[in-house]
Structure formats: C-alpha cells, structure tokens
Design brief:
Distance between the termini: 41 Å
Number of strands: 11
Number of helices: 1
Largest sheet: 4 strands, antiparallel
Structural class: mainly beta
Low-confidence stretches: 1-13
Oligomer: single chain
Radius of gyration: 14 Å
Strand order of the largest sheet: 1-2-3-4
Helix content: under 10%
Mean pLDDT: 77
C-alpha cells in the first residue's frame, strides 16, 4: 500500500519513469529550479539535474517517449509554450518541438503509435493537441 501511495503522489507532480539496463530512473519537474530532477527510482537516490540552461521558467510536465526513449519536458519560455527533448540518461539536449503552437502545456502523453498528445491551457480553456514526435 505504501509503495502505491508514493507512486500516486509522484504522479500528481508529473513524474516520469524509465528503465535502463543499469537502473530505473524517476524524473520530477523542478519548478523552482527550472529543470528536471533525476532520481534512482527504487532507492530515491538523487542522480542530478536535466535541462539546466535549456528548460524555461515554467517546467509543467515530463514524460518518457516509448518510441525514441527521450524525456519530453513541457515548459514555458518568454510566454511561449514548447516541448523540449532530452536524453534521460546523459541529460543531453535533443531539440524542441511545438513552439508557436502551445501556450501553457500542462500534461504530456503518448499514444501507442507514438503520437505526442499535449494538454494546453489557454486562458480558462484547455485543448488537446496531437503531434508526431519527429516534428
């Protein structure tokens, strides 16, 4: 029961999980530090920061792509929403997408075919936008 409660609490913060041969990692948005924090999922050991210098003032959400293995980060930079990609293991920046289409990305999900779905808050309304991950 306790493990499930922790996972639920992290999920409310926009946590993403990924597995490598060497470890399972958990990623949490760091809204005050303008980055994504990386932890070892089973022990909670802090493993560093991803996106420092790239991720904007408003880290909103993170999600792992099942197709390309990148960590997708929804953020707002200078009033414009966008999605940034990072290698979850090395933290290397891998480009951005959806700039100019988003206002305030709130959550990210992937369909089985790899389509990226982003909920975007626009004033008092929210819409769901779909993108191919490559574009």
């Amino acid at each position: 029961m306790g493990t499930h409660m922790k996972a639920l609490a992290f999920g409310l913060l926009g946590m993403a999980l990924c597995s490598f041969a060497s470890a399972e990692l958990a990623f949490l948005p760091n809204t005050t530090g303008q980055s994504v924090l990386k932890f070892e999922a089973t022990t909670g050991e802090y493993k560093g920061v991803i996106g420092a210098g790239f991720v904007g003032a408003g880290v909103r959400c993170v999600e792992m792509s099942p197709l390309d293995g990148y960590l997708y980060v929804g953020t707002v930079i200078s009033g414009t929403g966008l999605i940034q990609r990072f290698d979850p293991y090395t933290g290397e920046y891998a480009g951005s997408l959806a700039s100019g289409f988003l206002t305030n990305p709130r959550s990210i999900a992937f369909r089985n075919d790899g389509t990226l779905l982003v909920s975007d808050q626009r004033g008092t309304s929210t819409c769901i936008l779909a993108f191919t991950a490559a574009t």
